[in-house]
Design goal:
By secondary structure, this protein is α+β, with helices and mostly antiparallel strands. The chain has two domains: 1-30; 32-183, Trefoil (Acidic Fibroblast Growth Factor, subunit A), CATH 2.80.10. 15% of the residues lie in helices and 28% in strands. It has two helices and 13 strands; from the N terminus they run αβββαββββββββββ. It has helices at residues 3-26, 84-87, and strands at 34-37, 47-51, 64-68, 93-94, 99-103, 112-115, 125-127, 133-135, 138-145, 151-152, 161-163, 165-169, 180-183. The strands form four sheets. A four-stranded antiparallel beta sheet has the order 2-3-11-10, with no helix packed on it. Strands 7-8-9-12 form a four-stranded antiparallel beta sheet, with no helix packed on it. The protein has a three-stranded antiparallel beta sheet with strand order 4-5-6, with no helix packed on it. Strand 5 and strand 6 (112-115) form a beta hairpin.
Length: 186
């Protein structure tokens, strides 16, 4: 391969790469944030709200879980990435999948699923002053990581950890499983 051909290929890759970044930025995927549990529980990488499945292959019909945060890899994965602007309006929106977080019911032990954003009551999540995420229709129900033993995920080194998520009564004694924060990768 001649130097001229190599130069053309490299220039083409740079143009395509820059276009991809611009395209991703216009739909909000460059500046994603993750929602992570303040308490690392049993994994120094911490737990994040996560769509079940793997990154771009995540299965939105399977709902949400608490999963090892991917930010230790230097970026926020699309299956853990929320739109930071929409979060300021209490819209828990995953731009890569075009869906919002939704409770299955207004009761304890309800799970979290994903659905087209519709501003309905089961998608009306809010933050309290302590960092808990609660269902707007019932401020006593908080997004909670299961306190039972974590299970191993399908990858990572060390292997990623997974825990179930549900709505449970907001209580001080379960704060380690109910206090959340937002961060972006620097």
């Amino acid at each position: 391969m001649t130097n001229r051909i190599k130069q053309i290929l490299l220039t083409s890759l740079l143009i395509v790469g820059a276009s991809t970044v611009r395209a991703l930025d216009t739909i909000g995927l460059v500046n994603l944030v993750e929602i992570y549990a303040i308490n690392q529980i049993d994994d120094q990488r911490g737990y994040c709200l996560d769509i079940k499945g793997h990154k771009l292959k995540a299965k939105i019909e399977r709902g949400l879980q608490a999963h090892t945060c991917y930010s230790y890899q230097g970026e926020i994965a699309v299956d853990q990435g929320f739109d930071p602007v929409k979060l300021t309006k209490n819209d828990f929106f995953f731009p890569a999948f075009g869906v919002c977080m939704e409770a299955t019911d207004f009761k304890s032990a309800a799970t979290l699923k994903l659905a087209k954003c519709n501003n309905k009551r089961l998608q009306d999540f809010k933050w309290d002053n302590y960092g808990r995420i609660y269902l707007g229709g019932d401020s006593k129900l908080c997004v909670t990581i299961a306190s039972d033993k974590a299970r191993d995920g399908g990858g990572g080194s060390p292997v990623h950890r997974i825990r179930n998520l549900s709505l449970e009564f907001c209580r001080v004694d379960v704060n380690p499983y109910q206090i959340w924060a937002i961060r972006k990768v620097k």
